[in-house]
Amino acid sequence: MASINMSYLDPTTVMLIGIPGLEHVQFWIGFSFFVVCVVAFLGNIILLIIIPAERSLHQPMYIFLAVLAATDIGLCVAIAPKMLAIFWFGSRSMAFDACLAQLFFIHSLQGMESGILLAMAFDRYVAICDPLRHTSILTPFILVTLVLVVAIRAMVLVGILPVLIKRLHFFHSIVIAHSYCEHMAVVKLAAEDIRVNKTCGLLVGFTILGFDMIFIIISYILIFQAVFRLHQKEARLKAFNTCTAHIFVFLEFYILAFFSFFSHRFGHVAPPTHILLSTIYLLVPPALNPIVYGVKNKVIRKRVAQIFFLNCQSRQ
């Protein structure tokens, strides 16, 4: 009973402290994350302008890329404002329900990003292994269906997590040692049995990230088998070249995702290191994705150059 008397009953607010142990320098750390967010916003907004406007990019790969860009912008919007308010203005207080809403949007958008990467891998598989049927398989209806399935899957599965947290009433603390509301960081505040929350978090993570990663790897095993069966070296190089951007984005996303996921549950990583890496995992891929695809695609490079060239001319 003494432990219950010392706990918080149905708290209405929580406190986000940012990066524990680095409070004295997180003001300056905020500027680096601000630059990353600006790059992510500009890069993804440019993609969302160029892809609908350029008819040659009205292909499944670039339609998925546009959805990925919208998802990346959503991630930055969900994380950056509160995080920078903590770093720069010391605005640590947050309504408990707002914290759960941020948790839902962050993890849902992560799940959507993973699903879109799987859809892009499927597109590459069909384009290389069955090119003659590419347009007949990936029709506009199929593309819309895939995007809707990815979005609904992420929202339904992740939606379970805040619902399970709401069933908890006693908390031993309201101070979250993080710069945003991450699922396990919130769950660990509870003074009750959280085994169901932990198990559900693992199941949701593996159902989304694990499932997608396995099928992406299978897709690329089949792609590489098909490519190595090509007799001409130029044809093999061309086929590989169409996949390099997606492979890079896939690796950066899943390596950082699984490091963050497992270190928070099973690892002994120092809290400042874990929080910095988990924030990098959420904010750096949205900044890198438009750069990677922009560098690889001549049409996107040309249109970006035209945008900046026209801006320079108008100023003159």
UniProtKB/TrEMBL annotation:
Keywords: Cell membrane, G-protein coupled receptor, Membrane, Olfaction, Receptor, Sensory transduction, Transducer, Transmembrane, Transmembrane helix
Bilayer topology: Multi-pass membrane protein
Chain ranges of the G-protein coupled receptors family 1 profile domain: 43-293
Transmembrane stretches, start-end: 25-50, 62-88, 100-120, 141-165, 202-227, 239-262, 274-295
Gene3D superfamilies, A to Z: Rhodopsin 7-helix transmembrane proteins (1.20.1070.10)
Subcellular location field: Cell membrane; Membrane
Signal peptide: none
GO molecular function, one term: olfactory receptor activity
Chief location category: membrane
SMART domains (UniProt xref): 7TM_GPCR_Srsx
Gene Ontology cellular component annotations, sorted alphabetically: plasma membrane
Function of the protein: Putative odorant or sperm cell receptor. Odorant receptor.
Family: Belongs to the G-protein coupled receptor 1 family.
Protein name stated in the entry: Olfactory receptor
